Amino acid sequence: MTRTGLFQFVRHHAVPEFHQRGWMVVDDLGARHGLWSVLMWHCECGSVAP
Q: Of the four, 15, 31, 43, 49, which is 20 to 30 A from 6 by CA?
């Protein structure tokens, strides 16, 4: 099954805000990537606005 949606790199401090808006963490890239360390995903299912 292929999922569609939006992917975005997010700063660690902004993750709670994105969670509240329906985004999920896909991967934590670790400290070596600096501020942009978390890859997040949001479905395009229409139930939650990105």
A: 31
Separation CA 13–CA 39 (nearest Å): 13
Which letter, b or e, does each residue of 12-32 get, where b requires 16 or more Cβ atoms within 10 Å of its Cβ?
Answer: eeebeebeeeebeeeeeeeee
Closest CA to 11 of 44, 46, 38, 31: 38
Q: Using one digit for the tens of pLDDT, what is the confidence trace for 1-50? A: 566 789 999 988 899 999 999 999 999 887 776 666 899 999 876 655 54
Amino acid identity, position 17: E
| pTM score of the predicted model | 0.71
> Strands across the sheet with 5-10, in order?
5-10, 38-43, 24-28
